[in-house]
Design brief:
single chain, 561 residues, alpha/beta, 4 domains, 20 helices
Length: 561
C-alpha cells in the first residue's frame, strides 16, 4: 500500500514540476539550454523532485499545442528531425539464416570476419548506436523499429513522418525469405506504434498487406534506404529493392581509383560503380555514395582529385555523399598492414583540408549526409579519432573564407540552428525559385529548389530525371517518360493533414508548386508520362494530385493534365 502511495505522490510531484516549467518556458520562449537546466533544478527543488526532471517527462505533461511551441527547447539532438523527417535505422543479423551478411573481403572492414566476438553485421564494430540496439533486441526488426520510434518520441521528436534505413552488410546477400521477414517486421512495427499498448504484437498476414496499410497509417513511412555494394546494385537487384519499397540507395563506391579498389580487396570495379549509379538513377532512386579518403595508396592530393572527378565526370554525380575517412580498427587486415608499417594514414589536419576543399566546391544539388563513422574513439587504432570532425571542417572553412553549398548546410532548419534562432520563422516572402540542369549517368537531371536570393537558405527541392537510353523498367521505357526521384520540403515536421504554425514550412504548398513545375518541364520535353518514386506513406498525397499506382511508382499521363 505504501509503495502505491509513494508512486502516486511522485506522479503528483512530477506533474507539478513539469507544469510549472512549461508555464515558465511559454513565457520565456528564448530560454537557452543552460538556463533550462538551472530552471529545472530550481523548480524541482521547490517541489522536492528526487532528481533533475528529464525533458521527456516535461513533454509528457504538455498539450499538443504546447509541445509544438516548446519542442525546440526540450527535445534532445535537434538535428535529427530538422530535414523534415525522423530517421529510424535498423540493422540486420550478422548471419541471416546461416549466410554471411556481405560477400565482401575488404581489408579495412570490421565485423564478424575480423572480430569473431563482435556479433554484428559486417562493416560494423558493435559499438555504433544502431548496432547496440540490434543486439539489444536480438536483431528482431520489429522490436528495433518499434523501440526506436518510442525513443525518438520520448526525447521530443515528431515521428509522424519517418524514413527507414536498413543497415548491416549487403542486404540483398541475405536469403529472400530473410529479406521478406525483416521488412515485414519493420512495417508491422510502424503500423502498431500508434496502438494504445506499445507491446501490442498484432501482425499483418503478409508483406503486401502491410505495405498497403502503411499508405494510410498514422505514422507515414515516406522513404526506405538500403545499403549495398556496386556489384549488388544492378538491374535484378534494383528490381528486388523496388518490390520492398526502396526510395534511396547507399552505394559503397569508396574511391574512383581502380588500383586502390584492387589493393583493398573490394572485389568490384569502377565500371561496376558507374553502372550501379546509372541503373539506380534510371529507376528513379536517389543515390548516396559512400566515399573513403585516406585509403592505402592514396594521398591528400589524390583524394581531392577523386572528389573532383566525382562531380566533373557525369558518369558519377551522386545526389548525396557520406564521407567516411579510413580508420584502422584492431583485428582487420588493414590493422595487420599498419602493424607491419605498410600503411600509415595521413594526419587529421590533412583530412580536414580534403573535406573542406570538397565542401567548398560541392554543387548545389548535392547533400553531404555525414562525414564520419559513428565509432567510439577507444576502438580506433589510427585515423580520425575526434568525434567533431564536421565542426573542425567548418572552423577550417570559416578561417579560410570557404563556404559549403551542399543541401544540408543550406536547409532552413540547420541554418536557423547554427544562427541560434531555431524557433524563429523564415521570411517566406523572400523565397525564390531556382532551376539547375546537368547531365548525369546518361540522362538529364533537373534540380528545382525554393531558396532565398543568395541561395544560403533552402526550404524545398525536387529532382526530375529524363532517363538514359539504358533504362530497364517497363513503366519508364514503354513510352517516353520522366521521373521525379525526390521531392522534399525541409524544416520541422508537420503532422499529416495538420496545418503548420508560424514557425513551420511544411504544408504551405511548396511541394505542389514543385510538382507543377516538374510537370511543366516534362511537357516541354515532349514526354508522355511523368512518374514519381513515392514512399509508401506518401502515395495518398500523389493520388490527390491525379497520380495512380504504376508498378512500384505512381504516374500521370500528360494528356490528363
Amino acid at each position: 500500500m505504501n509503495s502505491v502511495a509513494n508512486l502516486t505522490n511522485l506522479e503528483n510531484i512530477t506533474a507539478k514540476t513539469a507544469r510549472e516549467i512549461i508555464t515558465y518556458l511559454l513565457k520565456h520562449p528564448k530560454t537557452t539550454k543552460k538556463q533550462l537546466t538551472a530552471i529545472k533544478c530550481q523548480i524541482g527543488k521547490k517541489y522536492h523532485f528526487p532528481s533533475v526532471i528529464r525533458n521527456s517527462q516535461i513533454l509528457n505533461y504538455a498539450t499538443e499545442e504546447e509541445q509544438i511551441k516548446l519542442r525546440h527547447i526540450l527535445r534532445r539532438r535537434l538535428t535529427r528531425t530538422l530535414s523534415g523527417v525522423s530517421i529510424v535505422a535498423v540493422m540486420t543479423a550478422p548471419n541471416p539464416e546461416g549466410s554471411k551478411s556481405c560477400p565482401g573481403e575488404c581489408i579495412f572492414c570490421p565485423g564478424t570476419d575480423s572480430q569473431p566476438n563482435q556479433k554484428v553485421a559486417q562493416s560494423y564494430t558493435g559499438r555504433e548506436p544502431a548496432a547496440m540496439r540490434s543486439t539489444m533486441y536480438h536483431y528482431d526488426s520489429y522490436e528495433q523499429t518499434l523501440h526506436r520510434l518510442i525513443d525518438l518520441q520520448q526525447i521530443g521528436h515528431q515521428v509522424d513522418k519517418i524514413e527507414l534505413i536498413i543497415m548491416g552488410g549487403t542486404f540483398l546477400y541475405a536469403p529472400i525469405s530473410y529479406q521478406n521477414k525483416f521488412m515485414h517486421g519493420c512495417f508491422d512495427a510502424i503500423l502498431n506504434f500508434r496502438a494504445p499498448d506499445y507491446n501490442h504484437h498484432q501482425r499483418t498476414p503478409d508483406l503486401e498487406t502491410a505495405k498497403k496499410l502503411l499508405e494510410s497509417a498514422q505514422t507515414r513511412l515516406i522513404g526506405i534506404t538500403f545499403e549495398t555494394r556496386p556489384d549488388y546494385c544492378f538491374e535484378e537487384h534494383i528490381d528486388r529493392l523496388l518490390e520492398l519499397g526502396i526510395t534511396r540507395i547507399e552505394i559503397g563506391v569508396q574511391t574512383t581509383r581502380p588500383e586502390i579498389l584492387a589493393y583493398v580487396h573490394r572485389n568490384h570495379t569502377v565500371e561496376d560503380s558507374i553502372r550501379a549509379i546509372q541503373v539506380a538513377k534510371d529507376s528513379g532512386i536517389k543515390v548516396n555514395c559512400h566515399m573513403m579518403p585516406n585509403l592505402p595508396l592514396s594521398s591528400p592530393k589524390m583524394d581531392k582529385e577523386v572528389f573532383q572527378e566525382l562531380f566533373e565526370n557525369p558518369n558519377f554525380r551522386p545526389d548525396m555523399l557520406k564521407i567516411y575517412p579510413t580508420l584502422v580498427i584492431a583485428g582487420t587486415e588493414l590493422y595487420k598492414l599498419y602493424q607491419l608499417g605498410q600503411y600509415q594514414p595521413y594526419s587529421e589536419s590533412k583530412i580536414v583540408s580534403v573535406i573542406a576543399n570538397l565542401k567548398n566546391n560541392i554543387p548545389y544539388y548535392v547533400r553531404i549526409q555525414r562525414i564520419q563513422r559513428d565509432i567510439p574513439m577507444d576502438l580506433i587504432v589510427d585515423g580520425v579519432k575526434h568525434s567533431n570532425l564536421r565542426q573542425n571542417v567548418q572552423r577550417y572553412m570559416a578561417s579560410h573564407g570557404m563556404h559549403c553549398k551542399c543541401i544540408r548546410c543550406r536547409e532552413e532548419g540547420f541554418q536557423s540552428l547554427s544562427a541560434g534562432t531555431v524557433s524563429n520563422p523564415v521570411d517566406l516572402s523572400d523565397i525564390q525559385f531556382f532551376h539547375n540542369i546537368y547531365e548525369a549517368s546518361g540522362g538529364e537531371e533537373h534540380f528545382f529548389s525554393f531558396e532565398n536570393p543568395s541561395r544560403t537558405i533552402l526550404i524545398g527541392y525536387l529532382r526530375l530525371r529524363f532517363p538514359s537510353r539504358n533504362s530497364h523498367r517497363p513503366e519508364i521505357t514503354a513510352q517516353k517518360s520522366a521521373i521525379v526521384r525526390e521531392i522534399r520540403v525541409v524544416g520541422e515536421i508537420v503532422q499529416y493533414n495538420k496545418e503548420p504554425h508560424a514557425n513551420q514550412i511544411q504544408h504551405r504548398g511548396f511541394g505542389k508548386k514543385l510538382m507543377k513545375k516538374a510537370e511543366e518541364i516534362a511537357r516541354d520535353h515532349g514526354v508522355q508520362k511523368i512518374l514519381v518514386i513515392a514512399g509508401i506513406g506518401v502515395k495518398e498525397y500523389f493520388y490527390r494530385l491525379g497520380y495512380r499506382t504504376d508498378g512500384p511508382y505512381v504516374s500521370k499521363t500528360l494528356t490528363e493534365m
